[in-house]
Amino acid sequence: MMARSTRRRAGGVYLAGRALLSHLTKRFRFRGRLKAYCAGKRALLLNIGCGQLIHDGWINLDYEVVPGRSFYFDALDPLPLEDGSVRHIHCEHFLEHLERRDALKFLGECSRVLDAQGTMRVIVPDAERYMRVYVAEDREFFERMVNLGGHDEPLRPKSLVVNQMFRMWGNHRFAWDFEALDAAARSAGFSDVRRSGHNQAAPAYAIDGQDWWRPFESLYADLSK
Fold first, then answer.
1. For all residues of the chain together, what is the average pLDDT?
2. In sequence order, what E strands does the chain have?
3. How confident is the model at residue 32 (pLDDT cuts 50, 70, 90)?
4. Interaxial angle between packed helices 127-135 and 158-167, expressed in degrees from 0 to 180 and rounded to the nearest 10
5. Is 197:121 a contact under the CB 8 Å cutoff?
6. Are residues 96 and 128 in contact, defined by beta-carbon separation less than 8 angstroms?
7. Domains in the chain and their CATH numbers?
């Protein structure tokens, strides 16, 4: 009989193999579509990591494709777009899913494709807020967040909420505060990084998600070339 640890390793290899096959299939089927669609176009609006928040008039990008509504994009790959072809990038609750080194490369790619007056809006869980309310014993905050990420069982005590934000079943790879985001953005080629707030984007770029928890726990920042 196969030992339990061996079965686990075999199962892990099988799942990893399936994930790799799925990734390669997506790259083969979908990767060229974004490049072809954007070829020769300028002043593009990108909504990267859109999930189900798909908006008309924008180029909506995500690893999981909604046929006819969004384009496949893996943030570990370069953006298949021309230098200076983008006017604005919206990136909401996506950057935290990347390791910091990959996030730096991604931000560099965003800077590259933006035109000289280009801007980018980044929204992430605010690590500083979570740490401050933890130390302050802010019970109201933690009671509102007991089902963070759709968790079935209430997350109590408060350290479970913090762990859920930092880890999110292994899907979150880095926790950002404003200082870390500012440093990363400037190293990637942005000249200005400013705190913002929910629904405080310029009218032409106003596509912030409207779920109640977004302004409650998120960091909003506007980046400029």
1. 91
2. 44-48, 59-62, 71-72, 86-92, 114-125, 192-195, 218-224
3. confident
4. 170
5. no
6. no
7. 41-60+80-126+176-224 (3.40.50.150)
